[in-house]
């Protein structure tokens, strides 16, 4: 079977499902919030978020130097993740 035929057949099945059970079709096509977060989360972003949380903890505990180091680390990691995504995305 050719790709075009397969696509047409899948679209026909999707239309039929939407007409038969619109609520189920909506749930299957709408991503859940956790899915969006997991798609956004990469290793660099996870490390950046962890460093940011550590910076907040240092700020609460009154550790000034450690706060600046953690905040700088978080900024660098999150900036690198953003730069890497823009320059290397297919």
Structure, explained:
The chain has two domains: 1-30; 32-90. It is elongated and about 60 Å long. The chain has helices at 3-20, 22-29, 33-40, 43-61, 64-88. With 90 residues, the chain is an all-alpha fold. 87% of the residues lie in helices and 0% in strands.
Helix share bin: over 70%
Number of domains: 2
Radius of gyration: 22 Å
| Structural class assignment | mainly alpha
Give the low-confidence spans: none
What proportion strand? Answer: under 5%
Reported for the largest beta sheet, the result is:
none
Shape descriptor: elongated
Mean pLDDT: 83
> Helix count, per DSSP?
5
Distance between the termini: 28 Å
Per DSSP E runs of 2 or more residues, the count of β-strands stands at 0
Helix-strand sequence: HHHHH
Features:
0% strand; 5 helices; 90 residues; 2 domains
Q: Topology of this protein?
A:
Elements: H1 3-20, H2 22-29, H3 33-40, H4 43-61, H5 64-88
